[in-house]
Amino acid sequence: MELRPIKTDADLQNALKRLEEIFDAPIGSSESDEADVLGLLIDEYEKKHYPIEAPDPIEAIKIRMEEMQLKQVDLVAEIGGKSRVSEILRKKRKLTLEMIRNLTKKLNLSPELLISDYQLLR
């Protein structure tokens, strides 16, 4: 097991290739340990060089609605009225604190994600 830091995209590709080769190694084997360490190294490199931005609150709501197979009408109780739900999802109106609390429970989203700022569309 020759492990070294991942410093370039070429190193990353080599590490990914090696991880693919040993991914199903028996737990407790040296290859399994190598896979664990490679996974950590790959994760750190990707976080630093290819960060993934969190979606804005409205996109997060839409994503969760799709995952849960919900329609706009399913959020009326949490947001208040069909037209209000539509305004929120079209970014014509901002979420209120009460809406954020309700959506946090209904959609199981973190409050930190829902309180993030986003631009209204005119």
TrEMBL record:
- A GO MF label: core promoter sequence-specific DNA binding
Q: Which InterPro entries match?
A: Antitox_HigA (IPR039060), Cro/C1-type_HTH (IPR001387), Lambda_DNA-bd_dom_sf (IPR010982)
| Domain HTH cro/C1-type: residue ranges | 61-114
Q: Name one GO biological process term.
A: regulation of DNA-templated transcription
* Superkingdom of this protein's organism: Bacteria
Q: What is this protein called?
A: HTH-type transcriptional regulator / antitoxin HigA
Native source species: Alkalitalea saponilacus
Its taxonomic path starts at:
Bacteria, Pseudomonadati, Bacteroidota, Bacteroidia, Marinilabiliales
